[in-house]
Amino acid sequence: MKKFLIPITLFVVIGALLAYGLRLNPRRIPSPLIGKPLPHFDLPVLQDPGKTVDNADLRGHVVLINLWASWCVSCREEHPLLVALAHQHVVPIIGVSYKDKPADALAELKVSGDPYTEDLLDANGQTAIDWGVYGVPETFVLDRNGIIRYKQIGPITPGAWRRTLLPLIHELQSQS
Amino acid sequence: MTMRRMLLALGLLMLLVPAFGAAPPAAGGPVVHESALTRRELSIARTLRCTVCQNESVADSKAGIAKDMRTLIRQQLVAGKSRKQIVAFFVSRYGDYILLKPRFDLVGTIVWVLPLFLLAVLATSGWLVIRRHSRATEPPPPQLTEEDLARVRAARQQD
Amino acid sequence: MSPNALSLNLIELGHFAAILAFVLAIVQGLTPIVARGLHRPQLASLTGNLAVAVFVLTSIGGATIIYSFLTNNFSVLVVASHSNTHMPLFYKVAALWGGHRGSLYLWIWILTLFTMVLAFDGQTRYPERLPVILAVQGWLVAGFFGLSLFLSSPFVRLFPVPLQGADLDPLLQNPGMVMHPPMLYMGYVGFSVPFAFAMAALITRWKSELWIGLIRRWALIAWGFLTLGIVLGAWWSYYVLGWGGYWAWDPVENASFMPWLVGTALIHSITVQERRRMLHTWNIFLVITTFSLSLLGTFLVRSGVLSSVHAFTVSPGQGSYILAFMTVTLAISFGIFLARGRFQEAEETLASPMSRESLFVWNNVVFTTAAACVLLGTLYPLAINALNGSRITVGPPYFNAVMMPIFFVMLLLMAVGPLVPWRKANMIRLRARVLFPAILGLSAGVVMAVLAWPVYWTGPVAVGLVGFVLGTLIVDLARAVQQRRAQHISENVVVATWRTVFGNRRHYGGMIVHLGILMVAVGIVGTGMFRVEKSVVMAPGDVVKIGAQRLQFDGVHDLKGPNYTALQGKLTSLDHGFVLRPERRDYGPQQMTTTVASVNSNLLRDVYVVMGSPVPGKNGTTHYLIQVFINPLVAFLWMGGLTMVFGLGFTLSHRVRRAARATAPEAASAYAK
After folding, report:
1. How many domains does chain A have?
2. What residues 563-622 of chain C have any CB closer than 8 A to a CB of chain B?
3. CATH topology of domain B36-98
């Protein structure tokens, strides 16, 4: 009967693996862009499509870039938090509305408040792919040199803000 | 019987086949061709994983982001990028996760080699089982008595 | 009183019945232990009555849920989230298994059904062991009921009651999808019966010679349902998902394929034990493993560990529960196996390495290797994530590359196996038998290579092997018919063939299953190697030429279905006159657009059309993205699947007749020992 111990041990290993797997989120996928500069972008401003914003405009500040959409349900979850942050002036937040109609996005901002220092539009979603985005909402933390330090996949929860994002932002801001 | 049944089934199914060339070939409008670009676009898209739908390729998925990714592949092809460059671009943005076929790096090679290892282990155990069982000799067949032989002969004659 | 108010009460009644069933299942599990403890063995026979009661109560619960669906009782969560008033009646019933709550209930329902059938089956044939077998089943029922009632209850109510329900996922509103889960569950659950037998045998020291024949039929039935479920799933994927393929090596697909592979090994090695009294412990191990893989499949689908198109969205805690249940079940069963398995070891010897029994050993090696490789590919990304946190994908290209050679070896064994006699093969005679199939296979391979040149090496090899197997099937039958005619000179060929086949249904049923597998192999080769695909942007009046087909796009029009609106395109074949109508459907509530492929099938090829999104064209016209596939020989996949199930039925029909005549005295003598 001893020979059967080998496959049975294998089953135990698989069981342990599955138990570990239960604690992981299959949708949480680390971005290879962390520690690298944010890929080049040049996006029109929502309120004034003639004007554009690119990487150079963000240099020198620690910023959050928040991708959202008016059709996205979980974006509404994090929206109040963003509005509150904007009131506290912790960090400038750049909003990029992803594959949205400008009118819809503006209407949504009017209703729920506009926490963004700049409102940009990625109408065809190509910039988002260049940034390695899976879906909205996603939030990048950029340091003063335009390097991606962190990416939040999914809505920013108050816990994630307190534990991860805020300390990181303070640390980055303290660096010159 | 199995053959007959199959032939019968084939025959019946053939009846369901619309008769070849029954309708006269009709003249039609202008023929549109699949561009070489589309073919290359899809062939690259087939090796990439659609990131939101989790288990479909970018070519097969109906999700919005897959469509956007195909557009991007097309744009890069138009810009003169090679297949390698385009795939490398997607890996630089999404990581190895986007490759449907694991790469032959350290992590990827293991998964390609392990099946051979599994086969080796299982085949060895199969061989051991067979060898172990055949080592023991079979007991000699019981001797037939003259009585039995007579009975067999009688039975054969009856048949 | 409105029907809604009435069903308000009914669903609570159903809930109560389900709780009662849960409690009785535990009692069923405890009864033989109590009977033994009290030294009152006659008490144990209560398990049979309990099995019936559990089934009846579960059915009452299930019936009330279905009734809630039929009466649009949106105060029931599952109804509100998977049904609405516009849904056709057919899908309202099927919506029961449209979500994880209802489908788990269906799983349990089927398990209680199997348990009840087992109770009736065993009443006269193996009454002494029946209580323990039913107790094992009782614990399984209780375990799943616990999950259903405490973590994933289909009886949960909603307040306030919504006026309208959400829709059933449009992808699931398809006849193939309606039948696929019940068939698959019948397969998964069916393997619990051999498992219960094995457990009871180990616990009560029941020699496996005495019961292996009893589980053979159960294993075959489970295997047949699993086959049917997998084929239906592929069929659904092909017609509904609209990507022109039928098998994507998705974790959930793999989850059903692994028990199938090990189950296939099992049904072959059971035969070895029956005929040659070998592999006793190995068979018990296979029985436990097959059922473990069924449980693993349930876990993968319902835990959210692996992301998949088919996985259910789940409530937290469910994964942990199933894993804990699985761990306990396996720990107990393998523990008993290690402690008591030795008792079952009583083996005959192999006369020769070139014998049917040793080829069956190789069959087992190949099938378990296949299952292990699928398991490896499915869980490897998880393992890498656990070890170093990085994420990789193991996708279809990997599985195709790894499984192809294994399938070839399977085909080879399938060709040689049936020709090699038990005990010891006479090599000279064997060579003569293999000659014709080998020539047939070789020429098929060569013809294929020449006609379809240039072609990847797997094509000719696969076709050659298919020819080889076909040849051996013919030789096998021809030889048997010849022998029969030598004995019964008066019979003509047809009568002799008929009587040969019907005289040994068990063997020829198996051969029909093999023929079905050949047909599936033909379908896989055809679609895998010779598929043509084109993706073009078309305006009305345009023609696309693919293979020998010219299809003209005639434009689109709006269409109203029972619970959706659709844009239907029309393409006419200029060469053969058939019309294809691909659709883009919009089901209101969830605002989700689905594409419905349109297919023109014949035996040799499918013309498969998918209509994509509108593309604005020049001067204001609307163009459409049209994807056309020519999928050769797809029909063989479905025919092969049906042939396999038919062959299985043929094998089983033999068994039923003999059982009716011979079991009573057989059983009596068995228990007398």
Report:
1. 1
2. 573-578, 594-595, 600, 602-604, 613
3. Helicase, Ruva Protein; domain 3 (1.10.8)
